[in-house]
Specification:
By secondary structure, the chain is α+β, with helices and mostly antiparallel strands. Bound molecules: zinc ion (ZN). It catalyses: L-methionyl-[protein] + [thioredoxin]-disulfide + H2O = L-methionyl-(R)-S-oxide-[protein] + [thioredoxin]-dithiol.
């Protein structure tokens, strides 16, 4: 009697061990194990039970696919060109900043020293993005502003280079302009740190 009581529970435990060793052996150990451990910890009791009966792959894969779709869902932009077309329309420097989220060398853009009254435009689609009224010298070597023009830019969270920053791009063509930080001057306390190469400037006619 005791032997037959124990047998089913031993059998039930088997798939768990198998699943774990499979996961560990099929891939880059650290990340895969961390991921599955986190998923396990976040699971509800029902999902944890599913883990025990070996249903994990079926439950997990659709959720991860959804997440990936959400994360990579492209923003829709009014002005859109193919990558090849952008390369033709922009200089290599502009392309690297606007289309590949590059960063120009500090103090390399003449727009950093542009102090005339006028308007800064997106170099990708010519949308007015900043006014000289809101420009200030941040001593960083990049043209800096405490606010953009209305309805000019959009942002997303940028976690590249091990930092969490707020990326700023043109709301019309999606061209990368720079980042925004919260160490700017009054009245907003914001510092829109822009790449001069991503913009053009037109002085206001006197
Ligand atoms: Zn644009």
């Amino acid at each position: 009697m005791k032997l037959s009581d124990q047998t089913p529970s031993q059998k039930a435990a088997q798939p768990v061990a198998t699943a774990r060793s499979t996961a560990a052996s099929t891939a880059a150990p650290a990340t895969r194990q961390t991921t599955s451990r986190r998923l396990f910890l976040l699971s509800t009791t029902a999902a944890a039970a599913a883990v025990a009966v070996g249903l994990v792959p079926r439950l997990v894969r659709p959720a991860r696919a959804d997440d990936a779709r959400r994360a990579s869902a492209p923003e829709h932009f009014e002005v859109a060109y193919s990558d090849a077309e952008w390369r033709k329309r922009l200089t290599p420097g502009q392309y690297e900043i606007l289309r590949q989220e590059g960063t120009e060398r500090p103090y390399s853009s003449p727009l950093n020293d542009e102090h005339r009254t006028g308007t800064f435009f997106c170099a990708g689609c010519a949308l007015p993005v900043f006014s000289s009224r809101t420009k200030f010298d941040s001593h960083t070597g990049w043209p800096s502003f405490w606010t953009p023009l209305d309805n000019a830019v959009a942002t997303h969270t940028d976690t590249s280079f091990g930092m969490t920053r707020t990326e700023v791009h043109c709301r019309r063509c999606g061209g990368h302009l720079g980042h925004v930080f919260d160490d700017g001057p009054k009245p907003t306390g914001l510092r829109y740190c822009m790449n001069g190469l991503a913009m053009t400037f037109r002085p206001q006619p006197a």
